[in-house]
Q: What sequence folds into this?
Protein backbone atom coordinates (compact mmCIF):
# COMPACT_ATOMS: atom_id res chain seq x y z
CA UNK A 1 0.00 0.00 0.00
CA UNK A 2 1.33 3.43 -0.92
CA UNK A 3 1.41 6.33 1.56
CA UNK A 4 -1.37 8.09 -0.41
CA UNK A 5 -3.56 4.97 -0.34
CA UNK A 6 -2.94 4.55 3.41
CA UNK A 7 -3.82 8.21 4.03
CA UNK A 8 -7.02 7.90 2.00
CA UNK A 9 -8.06 4.78 3.89
CA UNK A 10 -7.36 6.41 7.26
CA UNK A 11 -9.44 9.44 6.25
CA UNK A 12 -12.37 7.12 5.40
CA UNK A 13 -11.91 5.58 8.85
CA UNK A 14 -11.99 9.04 10.43
CA UNK A 15 -8.29 9.08 11.40
CA UNK A 16 -6.88 11.81 9.15
CA UNK A 17 -3.86 12.79 11.29
CA UNK A 18 -2.23 9.41 11.51
CA UNK A 19 1.53 9.64 12.10
CA UNK A 20 3.91 6.77 11.70
CA UNK A 21 6.04 6.90 14.88
CA UNK A 22 8.28 3.97 14.01
CA UNK A 23 9.35 2.89 10.53
CA UNK A 24 7.55 -0.18 9.24
CA UNK A 25 9.55 -3.42 9.06
CA UNK A 26 11.55 -3.57 5.90
CA UNK A 27 11.85 0.19 5.46
CA UNK A 28 15.37 1.59 5.24
CA UNK A 29 15.19 3.53 8.51
CA UNK A 30 14.16 0.51 10.59
CA UNK A 31 16.15 0.52 13.87
CA UNK A 32 18.77 -2.20 14.26
CA UNK A 33 18.79 -4.75 17.06
CA UNK A 34 18.70 -3.11 20.51
CA UNK A 35 22.20 -2.92 22.06
CA UNK A 36 22.53 -4.67 25.44
CA UNK A 37 23.63 -2.49 28.39
CA UNK A 38 26.83 -4.55 28.58
CA UNK A 39 27.64 -4.01 24.91
CA UNK A 40 26.88 -0.28 25.25
CA UNK A 41 29.10 0.02 28.33
CA UNK A 42 31.93 -1.96 26.78
CA UNK A 43 31.78 0.21 23.65
CA UNK A 44 31.91 3.38 25.79
CA UNK A 45 34.94 2.08 27.68
CA UNK A 46 36.66 1.10 24.42
CA UNK A 47 36.36 4.67 23.19
CA UNK A 48 37.08 6.36 26.52
CA UNK A 49 39.43 9.34 26.59
CA UNK A 50 38.43 10.70 30.00
CA UNK A 51 42.01 10.65 31.30
CA UNK A 52 45.45 10.84 29.69
CA UNK A 53 46.03 7.08 30.01
CA UNK A 54 44.03 6.51 26.84
CA UNK A 55 46.94 7.82 24.79
CA UNK A 56 49.33 5.08 25.91
CA UNK A 57 47.09 2.04 25.90
CA UNK A 58 47.15 -0.82 23.43
CA UNK A 59 43.53 -1.46 24.38
CA UNK A 60 41.19 -1.05 27.31
CA UNK A 61 40.81 -3.93 29.77
CA UNK A 62 37.10 -4.04 30.50
CA UNK A 63 36.73 -7.07 32.77
CA UNK A 64 36.15 -10.77 32.40
CA UNK A 65 34.06 -13.61 33.74
CA UNK A 66 30.45 -14.26 34.50
CA UNK A 67 28.15 -11.26 34.28
CA UNK A 68 25.83 -13.01 36.72
CA UNK A 69 28.59 -13.78 39.22
CA UNK A 70 28.08 -13.58 42.97
CA UNK A 71 31.77 -12.79 43.40
CA UNK A 72 33.33 -9.63 42.03
CA UNK A 73 37.11 -9.43 42.32
CA UNK A 74 38.63 -6.00 41.88
CA UNK A 75 42.31 -5.38 41.26
CA UNK A 76 44.35 -2.30 40.51
CA UNK A 77 44.99 -1.71 36.83
CA UNK A 78 46.16 -3.58 33.74
CA UNK A 79 49.86 -4.36 33.51
CA UNK A 80 51.85 -4.98 30.36
CA UNK A 81 50.36 -8.39 29.55
CA UNK A 82 46.83 -7.28 30.34
CA UNK A 83 47.22 -4.23 28.09
CA UNK A 84 48.41 -6.50 25.28
CA UNK A 85 45.79 -9.21 25.74
CA UNK A 86 42.82 -7.07 26.81
CA UNK A 87 42.05 -9.24 29.85
CA UNK A 88 42.70 -8.61 33.55
CA UNK A 89 45.12 -10.74 35.55
CA UNK A 90 46.71 -12.79 32.80
CA UNK A 91 50.33 -12.69 33.98
CA UNK A 92 51.99 -14.57 36.86
CA UNK A 93 49.89 -12.68 39.39
CA UNK A 94 46.86 -13.82 37.42
CA UNK A 95 47.86 -17.46 37.83
CA UNK A 96 48.06 -17.01 41.58
CA UNK A 97 44.71 -15.19 41.54
CA UNK A 98 43.27 -18.21 39.71
CA UNK A 99 44.56 -20.43 42.54
CA UNK A 100 42.97 -18.13 45.10
CA UNK A 101 39.69 -18.37 43.20
CA UNK A 102 39.99 -22.17 43.16
CA UNK A 103 40.65 -22.10 46.92
CA UNK A 104 37.23 -20.44 47.23
CA UNK A 105 35.74 -23.44 45.42
CA UNK A 106 35.13 -21.30 42.32
CA UNK A 107 36.52 -21.00 38.81
CA UNK A 108 37.80 -17.97 36.94
CA UNK A 109 34.84 -18.11 34.58
CA UNK A 110 32.39 -18.25 37.49
CA UNK A 111 33.47 -14.95 39.05
CA UNK A 112 33.80 -11.49 37.54
CA UNK A 113 37.23 -9.81 37.53
CA UNK A 114 37.75 -6.10 36.96
CA UNK A 115 40.18 -3.37 37.94
CA UNK A 116 40.03 0.15 39.36
CA UNK A 117 41.45 1.36 36.01
CA UNK A 118 40.60 0.12 32.55
CA UNK A 119 43.86 1.41 31.04
CA UNK A 120 47.48 0.62 31.88
CA UNK A 121 49.39 3.32 33.76
CA UNK A 122 52.89 3.85 32.37
CA UNK A 123 55.57 1.69 34.03
CA UNK A 124 52.80 0.13 36.14
CA UNK A 125 52.78 3.09 38.51
CA UNK A 126 49.90 3.51 40.96
CA UNK A 127 46.74 5.05 39.50
CA UNK A 128 46.45 8.76 40.28
CA UNK A 129 43.34 9.92 42.15
CA UNK A 130 42.19 11.74 38.98
CA UNK A 131 42.56 8.59 36.87
CA UNK A 132 40.68 6.51 39.45
CA UNK A 133 37.91 9.11 39.58
CA UNK A 134 37.65 9.30 35.79
CA UNK A 135 37.25 5.51 35.61
CA UNK A 136 35.06 4.77 38.62
CA UNK A 137 31.75 5.35 36.84
CA UNK A 138 32.45 2.36 34.60
CA UNK A 139 33.04 0.11 37.61
CA UNK A 140 29.86 1.44 39.21
CA UNK A 141 27.91 0.52 36.10
CA UNK A 142 29.46 -2.95 36.04
CA UNK A 143 28.52 -3.44 39.70
CA UNK A 144 24.98 -2.27 38.95
CA UNK A 145 24.67 -4.81 36.14
CA UNK A 146 26.30 -7.73 37.97
CA UNK A 147 24.75 -7.06 41.38
CA UNK A 148 27.40 -9.20 43.12
CA UNK A 149 26.83 -10.74 46.54
CA UNK A 150 30.39 -9.99 47.66
CA UNK A 151 33.40 -7.97 46.52
CA UNK A 152 36.98 -9.09 47.07
CA UNK A 153 39.39 -6.15 46.80
CA UNK A 154 42.85 -7.47 45.99
CA UNK A 155 45.70 -5.22 47.00
CA UNK A 156 46.23 -1.86 48.63
CA UNK A 157 45.36 0.23 45.59
CA UNK A 158 42.00 -1.45 45.03
CA UNK A 159 41.11 -1.41 48.72
CA UNK A 160 42.12 2.20 49.34
CA UNK A 161 40.39 3.50 46.22
CA UNK A 162 37.17 1.61 46.82
CA UNK A 163 37.04 2.52 50.50
CA UNK A 164 38.34 6.08 49.96
CA UNK A 165 40.95 5.74 52.68
CA UNK A 166 44.70 5.88 53.17
CA UNK A 167 44.63 3.26 55.94
CA UNK A 168 47.27 0.55 55.40
CA UNK A 169 46.09 -2.72 53.84
CA UNK A 170 47.20 -4.65 56.92
CA UNK A 171 44.58 -2.72 58.88
CA UNK A 172 41.86 -3.02 56.27
CA UNK A 173 42.10 -6.83 56.22
CA UNK A 174 40.12 -8.92 58.63
CA UNK A 175 36.95 -6.82 58.77
CA UNK A 176 33.87 -6.56 56.63
CA UNK A 177 33.54 -3.31 54.70
CA UNK A 178 30.80 -2.23 52.35
CA UNK A 179 30.94 -0.79 48.86
CA UNK A 180 27.76 0.48 47.22
CA UNK A 181 25.71 -1.77 49.48
CA UNK A 182 27.82 -4.88 48.82
CA UNK A 183 29.99 -6.49 51.54
CA UNK A 184 33.65 -6.05 50.69
CA UNK A 185 36.63 -8.04 51.98
CA UNK A 186 40.24 -6.91 51.52
CA UNK A 187 43.13 -9.24 50.81
CA UNK A 188 46.67 -8.99 49.51
CA UNK A 189 47.43 -8.57 45.83
CA UNK A 190 48.68 -11.79 44.25
CA UNK A 191 51.74 -9.94 42.90
CA UNK A 192 52.64 -9.06 46.50
CA UNK A 193 52.07 -12.67 47.57
CA UNK A 194 54.51 -13.80 44.88
CA UNK A 195 57.13 -11.55 46.49
CA UNK A 196 56.14 -12.41 50.07
CA UNK A 197 54.91 -16.02 50.04
CA UNK A 198 54.83 -16.18 53.84
CA UNK A 199 51.86 -13.80 53.71
CA UNK A 200 49.81 -16.41 51.84
CA UNK A 201 48.58 -17.71 55.18
CA UNK A 202 46.98 -14.32 55.90
CA UNK A 203 45.47 -14.25 52.42
CA UNK A 204 43.95 -17.66 53.12
CA UNK A 205 42.43 -16.24 56.32
CA UNK A 206 40.95 -13.43 54.21
CA UNK A 207 39.43 -15.90 51.78
CA UNK A 208 37.92 -17.86 54.65
CA UNK A 209 36.40 -14.65 56.02
CA UNK A 210 35.03 -13.83 52.57
CA UNK A 211 33.46 -17.30 52.30
CA UNK A 212 31.91 -16.91 55.73
CA UNK A 213 30.42 -13.54 54.82
CA UNK A 214 29.21 -14.89 51.48
CA UNK A 215 27.33 -17.65 53.33
CA UNK A 216 25.88 -15.28 55.94
CA UNK A 217 22.37 -13.97 55.15
CA UNK A 218 22.70 -10.32 54.13
CA UNK A 219 20.59 -8.98 56.99
CA UNK A 220 22.92 -10.65 59.49
CA UNK A 221 26.19 -9.18 58.18
CA UNK A 222 27.72 -6.64 60.52
CA UNK A 223 30.04 -4.23 58.71
N1 LIG B 1 47.32 -6.47 38.55
C1 LIG B 1 46.08 -5.96 38.71
O1 LIG B 1 45.76 -5.39 39.74
N2 LIG B 1 45.22 -6.11 37.72
C2 LIG B 1 45.51 -6.76 36.61
O2 LIG B 1 44.65 -6.87 35.75
C3 LIG B 1 46.80 -7.28 36.46
C4 LIG B 1 47.68 -7.13 37.45
A:
Amino acid sequence: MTDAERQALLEVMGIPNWILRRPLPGLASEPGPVESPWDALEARVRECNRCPLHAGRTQTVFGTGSREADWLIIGEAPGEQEDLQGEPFVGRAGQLLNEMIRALGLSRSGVYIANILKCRPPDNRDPSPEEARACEGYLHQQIGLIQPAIILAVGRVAAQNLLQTTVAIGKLRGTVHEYRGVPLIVTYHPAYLLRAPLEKRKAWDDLKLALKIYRTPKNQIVT
